[in-house]
What we know:
The protein is of the alpha+beta class. Helices cover about 30% and strands about 25% of the residues. A hairpin with a 5-residue loop joins strand 5 and strand 6 (about 95-100). Glutamic acid binds near residues 2, 74, 76, 78 and 103.
Amino acid sequence: MCGIFGYLGNKDASEMLLEGLSRLEYRGYDSAGIAIITKDGQLSIRKASGKLKNLINEVDSSPLKGQFGLGHTRWATHGAPTQANAHPHTDCTGEIVVVHNGILENYVPLKEALSTKGHAFSSSTDSEIICHLIEDYISSGKSFDEAVRLAGCDLQGTHGIAAIYEKAPNTVVA
Ligand code: GLU
């Protein structure tokens, strides 16, 4: 069972997310990742397969500084437990980030419809389609939080979701 941890506040988000994920380790997982919007408004992601220690090493060698972000421990259901399939996932612009807990039963038709519209996918997970659905709603003029809500309405199955967006400072939508 995966874990989701979000942080928005005055402390170092990287430390808070890694501490949050370590508290969720007991749930079981096969890979982990964090995404942070840095102080200069840039989105950065670090992911690692295997134990949380691998992600901590990754962050130690390439630190992230920011005040808000998302963390995820994954229990793979769609796609092997690789770094590429670890969450967080992003859309085509690389500005929207999503973590997902659960299984999307209708991801095949949604992925086909999004591919037809020109979306490109970089993982084999069911979860990645959520980023592209949100991207689609934002490009049709919806606000970030409305786009997350509408994307959620398109999904069948089980879905705990949290999302951040480079263009929506200090906002975590869950
Ligand atoms: N179905 C998603 C995946 O395979 C999420 C799994 C989970 O809940 O960790 O990536």
